[in-house]
């Protein structure tokens, strides 16, 4: 039935698109992509990095996802952690698994994000 993961959507507060851009583009290295015209009035913002598509949709009232989260694979977790800390972001360690090591961060809205490196 399912062929591939097309995109991930997480929620964000209304009117915070510039904050999302600063974080997801400026720190995590995503590139903003235009939303279809029919969806422009809803707010939110869409990003891509490689084959990863991330949509941030406005939720009102907003509640951050504290457990559910996207897991983004990176080439060098140590390098990413240094970069995150250089931006004064709190990085919490996750339990490493036999085939990967991982950490967690929160986006500016409090949504949980996992960053992982395959071993």
From TrEMBL:
Q: Where is the VOC domain?
A: 4-118
| InterPro entries the record matches | Glyas_Bleomycin-R_OHBP_Dase, Glyas_Fos-R_dOase_dom, VOC_core
Read off the Pfam families from this record.
Answer: Glyoxalase (PF00903)
Q: What is this protein called?
A: VOC domain-containing protein
The source organism is Litoreibacter arenae DSM 19593
Species lineage, top-down? Bacteria, Pseudomonadati, Pseudomonadota, Alphaproteobacteria, Rhodobacterales
